[in-house]
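(Deposited chain)
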Amino acid sequence: MNKYLTGLIAALLVGIGAGVWLSGHPQQIPWTLPGLEAAIAAPVKAEGRKPLFWRNPMNPAITSPVFTQDEMGMDYLPVYADDGGAADEPAGTVKIDPVTVQNIGVRTVKARRQAFSRSVRALGRVIADETRITRLHPKTEGWIEKLFINKTGERVRKDDILFSIYSPKLVSSQHEYLLALRNLKTLGESEYADIREGARQMAEISRERLQLLDVPEHQIRELEQTGKAFKALHVHSPFDGIVMKLSVSEGEYVTPKSELYRLADLTKVWVQVDVYEYELSQVRVGDKAQLTLKSLPGRTFEGRVAYIYPYAEAKTRTIKVRLELDNPELALKPDMFTDVTLNTGLQQDAVVVPDSAIVRSGEREQIFVVRAPGKFEPREVTLGQSSGGWVQVLDGVKAGEEVVTSALFLIDSESKLREATAKMLEAAKADQSAGGAELDMQGMSMDAPDMSMDAMRLDSSADDGMDMGGLSLDGGDRP
C-alpha cells in the first residue's frame, strides 16, 4: 500500500514539473506547427506598411496601439496613415472595388435638367356655383293655384312658367292699375297741367307696383289690352337651370317667408379640394388642375384654382381649395367625388434626380456622387419640389453628375465609418507631430512598452514552495 501511494505521488510530481517546464519553453513542443505562433500573434500582415493603431471591428471608437482581440475573439483591424483618403478628397469618400460594386448591386443615374412641375394629388367634391343658385320666394301671401314644374331635378329654361299663384293683394293691385289707366285717359286731356301730370304719375306708380310683385311683363301688357284683372298670376324661371329643391305643393298657402323653389345653374360648377397643410405652400390661385371621375373613365376635365379658403378644417387638418370648371354637358353633378391633380407651377430649367438617390437622416439630405469608378463622394444637398418619383435639387449636385440610386445603405454606412476614421487619423497624426511617444484616444493614454514574459518565474521557496515528503520543486529563472 505504501509503495503504491509513493508511486502515485511521484507520478503526479513528474506531471506537474513537466507542465511547468513546457509552459516556459513552448518553442520546444514537438507537435507545434511551424509558424502557427507567429500567425496567432499577428494575424493581419501590414504588407510593408506600419499601422498607426488598431481599431475594434464593431466599434471604431475603441482603439488599441497594438494588435489585440475584442471580448468575442474578433481581431482588431489595422488603421494606416492613408486610410483617411487623399488630401483632396472630401471626408467620407468611399472606395469600393469593381467586384464588390457588382455584388452589392450599385446602380447610378445622371442628374439632368428638365421642365419640372410639382403635382399635388387630392380628393375633390363637386358643388354648385354659389353665385348661380336662386331661391324663389313669393313677394306676397297667397295660394298656389298650379305647379307647372313639379319635380326635383327637372331642368328648366329661362322664362319657363314655374307656378301660378292667387293673391288678393295682386288682384287689388291690378284693379288699382286699371283705375289709374282710366283716370289717365280721362284727365290726360285736362287744361290743367298739374292734373295731367298727377294722372300720369299715378299710372306709372301702379304699374311699377305690379312689377315689384313679380307680375310678368306679358301679363301686364295683356292687362292693359283687355282691361280685366287675372285671378292667378304666373311666376317664371329667371335663368336656365336645375330644380335642386321643391318645397311647395298645389293649393298650399304661402307667404314671403316660404321658399318655393331652389334653382341652380350647373353649366359652371365648383370643386372643393382638401389640401394638406404641408402642401398648401405650393398651391397658387390660377394654377391649372385636371379632374378624373371613376364614373367617366377616359375623360379629363380642366379647371383652375379660383380661391384658397383662409381657414383649416378642425377635424381633417386640411384647407379647402376651390376650383371653377365649365360644365356645358352637365357631366359633373353636385356631390360627385373626383380625383384632382393640381399642377403648382412649371419650372423650365430644374436639376432633378430620382427620389431613390436621396439619403435622409432626419437632420439633412445627402446624395452620393460618383467621382471615379468605385469612388463615391457624399454631398449634402438642398432639395426643392418632388413629383412623379423625381426630386428637384437646388444646391449640391450639377446636371450631368452621376449619382447612386441603389445600395445606399451599405455605402452610407461605409462613408460614415470612413469619416469617423479620418477624424481619428487627424488626431493621431497631430499627436505624432508633437513628438509624443503615447497614443491618446478618447482621453485614455495607452503606452506600448516591451511586454516580456521573462520576468515571470515559478519559485518554490520556503514561503510558497511545494513540500511533499521532503521533495521540493524550484522552477528557478528561465533562460
